[in-house]
Amino acid sequence: MWTIPKTGFIISVNMSFKENLTVLYGRNEIDFKVRQLAQVIKQDYEDKNPLFVSVLKGSFIFMADLARQLDFPLEIEFVRLSSYNEDTKSSGKINIVQDISFEVKNRHVLIVEDIVDSGLTVKFLKDMLEEQQAASVRVCALTNKPSRRTCAVDIDYLGFSVPDKFIVGYGLDLNQKFRNLPDICVLDEPKQQSEMR
Ligand code: 5GP
Ligand code: MG
From the CB of 58, is ligand 1 less than 6 Å away? Predict the structure, then answer.
């Protein structure tokens, strides 16, 4: 059981371990941003029968909320990529854990991501979709952490620019936990943050 106060407050989460979380973006702010993004995306994709490619697992809630704000024909596919070795340190190498089963050729594709950090995941996926001759490939990211970028990536539709802090909630995890938090929170636990990278 946890209590979710307004943005900026400290909350305690009573799970298998206890950390302090600071709300960075509350659920109402996220909801407003998702609606704003949907308006722009609608203008650009309404007549294109686009294919949205949601990057699992982190973007599943964002994808679901975004899709429900869009009232025109579109298709949704999921891909699961991993940039981590077994020791959870980032390897810089992307592995396809679950591939796309859709025919991408001549489709207008929108990648839906939870966070662009180094940029490696999005770059890998964009290159892959372009190789498969998509008509267009754009990127919609809920959050962006530009301070950690190691390769150039264009984000066409962006929710929030976040500071160089490890964030959880609204789909984003720490060791598979916290995805179900309705707010985007900063985890105040330096040891575990560094272990994830
Ligand atoms: P990339 O470094 O390739 O841009 O991002 C790879 C993945 O690292 C993201 O999709 C996300 O799963 C994870 N990641 C990067 N930064 C954070 C963060 O602050 N919080 C969480 N929960 N995951 C992150
Ligand atoms: Mg992701």
Answer: yes
Average pLDDT over residues 101-109: 96
How far is the C-alpha of 155 from the C-alpha of 165, rounded, in Å?
20
Ligand 1 contact via 59 beta carbon (within 6 Å): no
Q: What's the mean per-residue pLDDT of the chain?
A: 88
Mapping DSSP to helix (H, G, I), strand (E, B) and coil, where does residue 181 land?
Answer: coil
Residue type, position 15, single letter: M
Residues labelled as active-site residues:
117
What is the pLDDT at residue 83?
78
Q: Write down the H helix ranges in the chain.
A: 27-45, 60-67, 120-131, 190-196
Summarize pLDDT for 113-144 with one digit per residue, the tens: 999 999 999 999 999 999 999 999 999 999 99
This model's pTM is above 0.85:
yes
CA distances for 146 relative to 115, 116, 152, 161, angstroms: 10, 8, 10, 7
Quick one: CA torsion of 37, 48, 74, 35, rounded to 10 degrees? 10
Alpha-carbon Rg of the chain, whole angstroms?
17
Ligand 1: does its nearest atom lie under 6 Å from the Cβ of 24?
no
Q: What atom in ligand 1 is closest to the CA of residue 81?
A: 10
Could you give all domains of the chain from N- to C-terminal order, each with its CATH number?
A: 23-186 (3.40.50.2020)
